[in-house]
Amino acid sequence: MSGALRSERFRAEREEDWRALDRLLKKIETRSVRGLTDDELLALPVLYRSAMSALASARATSLDLALTRYLESLCSRAYYFVYGVRARPLERLTDFLSRQLPAQIRSMWRETLLSAALFTIGAVIAYILVMGDPDWFYSFMGRQLSDGRDPSATAEFLRNTLYDGGKDDGLGALASFLFTHNAQIALWSFALGFALCLPTAFLITSNGCMLGAFLAVFVSKGLGFEVGGWLAIHGVTEIFAIILAGAAGFRIGWRVGFPGAVSRLDAMVAAGRRGAIVMGGVVLMLACAGLLEGFGRQLIKNDLARYGVAAATAIFWGVYFYFPRRQALRGG
Questions:
Q1: Burial class (CB in 10 A: 0-12, 13-18, 19+), 244
Q2: What sign does the CA torsion over 284, 97, 307, 112 have?
Q3: SS3 content of the chain, % helix, strand, coil (to 5)
Q4: Rounded to two decimals, what is the model's pTM?
Q5: Collapsed DSSP state (helix, strand, coil) of residue 67
Q6: What DSSP state is assigned to residue 134?
Q7: CA nearest 86: which of 51, 36, 128, 127?
Q8: What is the rounded distance in angstroms from the CA atom of residue 219 to the CA atom of residue 164?
Q9: Which residues of the chain are under the pLDDT cut of 50?
Q10: Closest Cα partner for 285 from 249, 227, 240?
């Protein structure tokens, strides 16, 4: 039997079902799913499976290309309505915030611990070096960035920068720079993760070094408790966001190095999609950190109150991301 005749016979035996599926899809596309009757709703998945079976047969028997492409298009349209989520924007946002984001962050707990460890190691090393020799400070933070908040500054000057209330824009400019810098670090940590995690590890560690060096300057002047409150009020959220971005980058790098049974490209794409969800949360956290820094620094002057806000944010993010949800337990 010739290929053309075989295709014609194949089409004649099944074309009625394909046309029925196409009519349902056009009805949905013009009037939404609500326009279907109960019988049509029940028929939709049946017709879709029939079309998928026909597509598999067409590919396996090498039927004409036009028929195969028609079935591919038909099945793609039907898939969206059979399995896709036809949710409103608000519903999608709610699902993202309540289910997808926490679930992906919980799934990266190992990478998160690694990212946090590297950040902490960098901070501790820089802190120890600067406390031992103040000249190390300039290896981690440039003179222009410090803007006088360096080992040569007096305790009085440093104290005033922590409680200026907006009268002195110096520390505000520094905080704004650090926020922008940290946002860039977060994005690059994720984007460069494919290079076997090495750039991500460097960026996370170096960012920790900056924090350690900054803390050492204030601690050496007897202002450790005060600078801790100033940083923590927004730093809990901001640093956590950086650590999560690093975790997403590590996930990509790990999957590139150890793809398992799939190809490296497929493994990287899958990890990138999951990481993109986490990065959506990182952007949200950085925005929250900016608000906390902008309002908290000027409005909250009491050290204990600053630490109280920091503790509240830590509890909030911990519960939000890691508290078990019934939906997740059923799905697991």
A1: buried
A2: negative
A3: 85, 0, 15
A4: 0.71
A5: helix
A6: G
A7: 36
A8: 19
A9: 1, 165-168, 327-332
A10: 240
